[in-house]
Design goal:
This protein is of the alpha+beta class. The strands form 2 sheets. Strands 3, 4, 5, 6 and 7 form a 5-stranded antiparallel beta sheet that branches. Strands 2-1-8 form a 3-stranded antiparallel beta sheet. It starts with a helix and ends with a strand. The relative contact order is 0.12. About 10% of the residues have low confidence.
Length: about 280
């Protein structure tokens, strides 16, 4: 009887110790690690960021600080983006590729498994663009015609296009069969019709031109719909490659150069912001 009482007492003590350890451990995980302008970063935040990015602890902490400073700057500048702005941005991209928004979204859904994630990423890009416009305005040098020509001469490989595209077309009512072939080209499905084509780029519709130009040699395009079938292309080779004229790409070059200058300015801006931020290390 006495032994049973001792065993029961020991179990209660062990249970109490385990419960105390669990509570203590949970409190430690949620414990405050540091604050950035009074905004907290917990140990759990750091662990999650390390797991998400595979970064070392010091780098994960640095990234979390950067994210907080960035979001604080958005609030300070009163910058936000709504769904209408996201759709308007996507409409402009679609129009520049000769498509309406519905068709463009359809292609994006085929290229991105989670379209909501793409929209969220687009929203982040718009927030970044708005902040850059506000902070950078008047603080960077505008690229001149000479700057554009120098960039064009040094990077002509970026401005090439193929006149002829050698492809294999796969068509089927069964979308899964096409996806399986894209993962294993040796797979054979009776319901898949396979044909070889030589396509002339200047005769392609904007949607197909967009897909093929975005697909490298030896790769499959995403699956899309055409003539009540699911279709994809395997790009075997692109030939008749020509370099676009300077006047055709100078607007694109201007955007590229200005983006590079903006990024440099913003990097320096946030580095200064980090130096002056009130960062307190708790543990």
């Amino acid at each position: 009887m006495k032994d049973k009482k001792i065993q029961l007492f020991a179990k209660r003590v062990l249970f109490t110790l385990l419960a105390t350890f669990t509570i203590s451990n949970a409190q430690m995980i949620d414990a405050l690690a540091l604050t950035v302008n009074d905004e907290p970063i917990t140990i759990n935040d750091i662990n999650e960021k390390m797991s998400e990015t595979n970064l070392r602890k010091a780098d994960a902490v640095s990234l979390l600080i950067d994210e907080i400073l960035y979001n604080q700057e958005l609030d300070k500048q009163g910058i936000s983006v709504d769904i209408f702005e996201v759709n308007n941005y996507l409409e402009k991209i679609a129009a520049s590729n000769g498509m309406d928004l519905y068709t463009f979204k359809s292609i994006l859904r085929q290229k991105n498994k989670n379209f909501e994630e793409f929209e969220a990423q687009t929203k982040k890009e718009l927030l970044k663009r708005k902040l850059a416009d506000k902070l950078v305005r008047g603080n960077i040098t505008i690229a001149t015609e000479e700057d554009l020509k120098i960039y064009y001469e040094n990077n002509q490989n970026m401005f090439t296009t193929a006149a002829i595209i050698d492809v294999t077309q796969y068509a089927s009512k069964n979308k899964r069969a096409l996806i399986a072939i894209s993962q294993n080209p040796m797979a054979i499905f009776q319901e898949v019709v396979k044909k070889d084509f030589i396509l002339e780029q200047d005769k392609l519709n904007p949607q197909l031109k967009f897909l093929l130009n975005d697909t490298k040699n030896g790769s499959f395009t995403p699956v899309f719909t055409a003539d009540r079938n699911f279709v994809m292309f395997y790009v075997k080779n692109k030939s008749g490659v020509t370099t676009l004229k300077f006047d055709e790409v100078k607007d694109k070059i201007f955007t590229t150069l200005m983006n590079e200058r903006e990024q440099k300015f913003l990097k320096e801006y946030f580095e200064k912001l980090k130096l002056t931020a009130d960062i307190k290390v708790i543990r």
